[in-house]
Amino acid sequence: MAQATLVPDPNLADGKPVGLSDADLRLKADITYVDARVVAVSDGPDRNFVFNQSIPAAVWTVNHNLGKFPAVSVVDSVGRRIIGDEQHISANQTVLTFMAEFSGKAYFN
Predict the structure, then answer these.
(1) What's the CA gap between 45 and 24, in Å, rounded?
(2) Above 70 in pLDDT, residue 47?
(3) φ, ψ for residue 97, nearest 5 deg
(4) Which residue of 46, 76, 94, 101 is most buried, as measured by CB atoms within 10 A?
(5) How many domains does the structure of the chain reveal?
(6) What is the C-alpha to C-alpha distance for residues 106 and 95, in angstroms, rounded to an integer?
């Protein structure tokens, strides 16, 4: 079994960060606790969806059926990132609108 070795930290004096009061340490502990809780929250595996628009169009209506309002990234057929307007119609459908017709992919996460 591997053993941990304690290495003194030059930024600590008597085990406390140099220049911080006890109140600062309590605040930092509270923030660390909140951050840990946020990281630990999970609804199971993250669902995602890739939409392939093979026929050039300026409006893409996507039924992703993810049951959420996902983040969307769009690339054209050569992989360039494209910025457009996204409107979440429901937790399962999004309409993407662009200034010009093109084909590509939309990644929903």
Answers:
(1) 36
(2) yes
(3) -125, 130
(4) 94
(5) 1
(6) 11
For residues 84 and 35, the model is more confident at 84
Name the residue among 26, 48, 66, 65 with its Cα closest to residue 105: 48
Q: With beta carbons less than 8 A apart as the criterion, state whether 99 and 84 touch.
A: yes
The count of other CB atoms within 10 Å of the CB of residue 18 is 10
Residue 92 to residue 68: CA distance in whole angstroms: 7
Q: Of 52, 55, 64, which is closest to residue 106 (Cα–Cα)?
A: 52
Residue 96 belongs to domain spanning: 49-108
Per-residue tokens: 63: 């039924």
Q: Is residue 95, in this structure, part of any structural domain at all? A: yes
* d(C-alpha 98, C-alpha 62), whole Å: 14
